Amino acid sequence: MCGLGLGEMIVIGFILVVVFSASRMGQLGNAVGKFVYSFKKASKGEDFVDAKPLPPGARRGTTDAEYTDPTKKS
Q: Residue 66 and residue 74: Cα distance in Å, rounded?
C-alpha cells in the first residue's frame, strides 16, 4: 500500500490520533465511510433525484430555491 511499511503506518496513525484526538477519529472514519458509500452509489446511477416541475402559473423568486404559491395570499 503506497510502499509504506508497518512502522510508517503506526507513526501516521499516532499523528492522526494526536491531531484529531481519539474522540474525533470515529467521526472522521464515519464521514469517510459515508463518502465512499455515496460515491459508489452515485457512480452506479442509483442516486438520481426525481424532481417535480413547478405547477403552471407558479411565480419564481430570484433563485430556484424560492417558490411562491400563487394560491396563497400574504
A: 15
For residues 41 and 47, the answer to whether their CB atoms sit within 8 Å is yes
- List the grid coordinates of 7: 512502522
Grid cell for residue 72: 396563497
18-38 pLDDT per residue, tens: 887 777 877 888 888 989 888
Looking at residue 59, the DSSP 8-state letter turns out to be E
Report the length, in residues, of the chain. Answer: 74
Share of the chain above pLDDT 90, in %: 4
d(CA 47, CA 56): 28
Separation of alpha carbons 17 and 32, rounded Å: 16
pTM: 0.39
